[in-house]
Amino acid sequence: MKVTTTAIFFFLAATALAAPAPALADDLTNRQIPTARVQLTNEITGRNANAEIRLDGVAYAVSNLYASSPIVDNSVFLTISIALTAGLANPVECTLRSSTGDPLSRLTSRRTYSKLGSNPYALTPVDLTTATITCNSCQSCQAY
User: Fold this and answer.
1) What are the CA-CA distances from residue 51 to residues 42, 69, 86, 135 (Å)?
2) What is this structure's pTM?
3) CA-to-CA distance for 66 and 68, rounded, in angstroms?
4) How do the domains of the chain map onto residue ranges?
5) 31: how many CB neighbours lie within 10 A of its CB?
6) Are the CB atoms for 48 and 72 separated by under 8 Å?
7) Are 97 and 104 in contact (CB under 8 A)?
8) How is 49-88 classified by DSSP, letter by letter?
9) Burial 102-115, CB ≥16 within 10 A → b, else e
10) Which of 45, 75, 82, 123 has the fewest CB atoms within 10 Å, i.e. is most exposed?
11) Is 101 buried (19+), middle (13-18) or exposed (0-12) by CB count in 10 A?
């Protein structure tokens, strides 16, 4: 009887140790990354498009985010303004950059709209075909 009880004990212990560990609720692979909705608009044509951008600090190509949207015309993305339209419950910062990395616009939870281009009084479309957008969740976002 001792041998049988001991064998059963070791069998159950080995089985318990061989079982996969239960997944933790905070497992990073299962957590959803929040997003912000960024709208690009061409006020001359009346076209606009939205994209959900993850708040993960990764630079996403405008040409990929808005590839099948109304703002693309012959593979060119002409835009006059950019706006944060959703996902503003927490502090957010999104930066639109040219292909050379120069900032074209910076939006925050407090500054949600920006007209693009160098002339603040003219509606001049800006080509964003090679531009990128990066969004972050941040605690120290500053409006300017």
Assistant:
1) 15, 9, 10, 12
2) 0.72
3) 6
4) 35-137
5) 9
6) no
7) yes
8) EEEEEESEEEEEEHHHHTTTSTTEETTEEEESEEEEEE--
9) eebbbbbbeebeeb
10) 75
11) exposed
